[in-house]
Amino acid sequence: MPLIRSILHMLWMILTVIPWALFVVAASLFVSSNTMYWMCARWLKLAVDGGTFILGIQNRVTGMENLPTGELSAAVLLLKHQSTWETLSMPAIMPHPLAYVFK
To answer: What is the pTM of this model?
Structure first.
């Protein structure tokens, strides 16, 4: 069963990323970088939702209530790195654009 679910999720990723990427590349000629970020974050939301529905992955985020709510407010997020999954899920979850800093 896990193998079938993994194959289904891989098919989901392939079937969504190719048309989405073509659309984003075409749209990049006409829209701002902020709009591009949110367009890409929407695909990440599709990927995360596919992982939840197909694979049964549950995201657990604690402390969202502590984030500043202002439009221009900044915050530093410290994530418990367990896999690449948080790289996909955080832009889909967060209300403000993210920038990753690696050590």
So the answer is: 0.79
